[in-house]
């Protein structure tokens, strides 16, 4: 295959259709990609990247930086650092790049008159939406809506998407309590002092090891790591246990069902003990930041039944799981829920953010209640439209499902030789993870893989997760597995 493309040539790479094509050893969507990682320095990050990062550190908190990235030289599934190292990227900006780097169709969108208009005349959407905003949403974000969802509220980021969904839940539940009555004088007065009855006494329930964002409300529902929450005031909201499954799943069906029933029982007890004050629950199809923790469809089906029986709204947080990575466009589609969730939040791979909903009652009756200056961003909605169009046109969800099955099989075989613990994500696209012995072993493996040309990330206390773009193909899976085998062999 050809070497890394220059900046100018990147903008001319054509996209090729792969929807019904057998996956070959050649990259089909990005034919101009390098055939393999290119590592020029003795280690990653290299000296130029380290020097630039030191300079950046004087003006910006860069303590979480992996390496300084040359996005002009990145292409498709390959990310380039400042030293010219080209690494196969299976982390993809923490699961946020759906179509690879310098995607030609996204470049066209970026250069369009629509994008220019959206960027330089950025509207305060709640007050001055553009004449074409309905069309942009209908052709993109709403065209991709989960089953049962016909409306959307756009937001600025995943945390914002979740927090606006929480607001919708609280306003919905209090409107039901109030009935036909208007706000009382006591409510209007007490809320200005942050007191009931004007302020809510209701809660949002989340799950142990969950991650829903880092703003004040979303942080109160985040339970993955203490470092996220230390020193920050929090709402006293409840958490329920999330199942800890044993793997392989087919060998522990009875034990896992017992674990899930135990968690469900405790969940229902918490709901009932709050005596009608749980406005909504929020749950991830896979607890991504908390360690890629899975549960079975049975668990999610029962959650839905319990929320319905107790008049509690169900918010499914698809910020990290959504837009195809699981082999379904929305990961909760794997669960065959008895009825759709009440809200589904999104961000990351859609490059836009917000929440879907079906009931018009989740939209407050008065203006300015669900409100901020921007209420999303039309430029991001344009990008989301192109992402959806490309995903549908090239069958990228189906491709991700096939490649995920292939990759899982390869990793399963590898786990028979090396300490790849609790391999999970079977039949779940490329949303695959496994456990290391401890955090030190994981840090060693991640560093060694980068030095071999694989950019990869972790989650939880000692897990490694895969988050490649939707244009990740069988060829890339083989490169990844080869690098993993070499690194584990060196342990």
What does the model show?
Helix 4 (104-110) packs antiparallel against helix 13 (378-393). The protein is 36% helix and 11% strand. The chain has a seven-stranded mixed beta sheet, sandwiched between helices. It has a four-stranded antiparallel beta sheet with strand order 10-11-14-13, covered by helices on one side. Helix 12 (297-309) links the parallel strand 6 (278-283) and strand 7. It has 491 residues and is of the alpha/beta class. The chain has helices at 7-10, 47-56, 92-95, 104-110, 113-120, 133-139, 158-178, 185-190, 216-220, 226-229, 253-273, 297-309, 378-393, 396-415, 439-451, 474-489; strands spanning 78-80, 86-89, 151-155, 203-207, 239-240, 278-283, 313-317, 343-346, 353-357, 421-424, 433-435, 454-455, 457-459, 463-465. It contains 16 helices and 14 strands. Belongs to the class-III pyridoxal-phosphate-dependent aminotransferase family. It catalyses: 4-aminobutanoate + 2-oxoglutarate = succinate semialdehyde + L-glutamate.
Which SSEs are present, and which pair or pack?
Layout: H1 7-10, H2 47-56, E1 78-80, E2 86-89, H3 92-95, H4 104-110, H5 113-120, H6 133-139, E3 151-155, H7 158-178, H8 185-190, E4 203-207, H9 216-220, H10 226-229, E5 239-240, H11 253-273, E6 278-283, H12 297-309, E7 313-317, E8 343-346, E9 353-357, H13 378-393, H14 396-415, E10 421-424, E11 433-435, H15 439-451, E12 454-455, E13 457-459, E14 463-465, H16 474-489
Parallel strand pairs: 2-12, 4-5, 4-6, 6-7, 7-8
Antiparallel strand pairs: 1-2, 3-9, 8-9, 10-11, 11-14, 13-14
Pfam family, one: Aminotran_3
Protein name: 4-aminobutyrate aminotransferase
GO cellular component, one term: mitochondrion
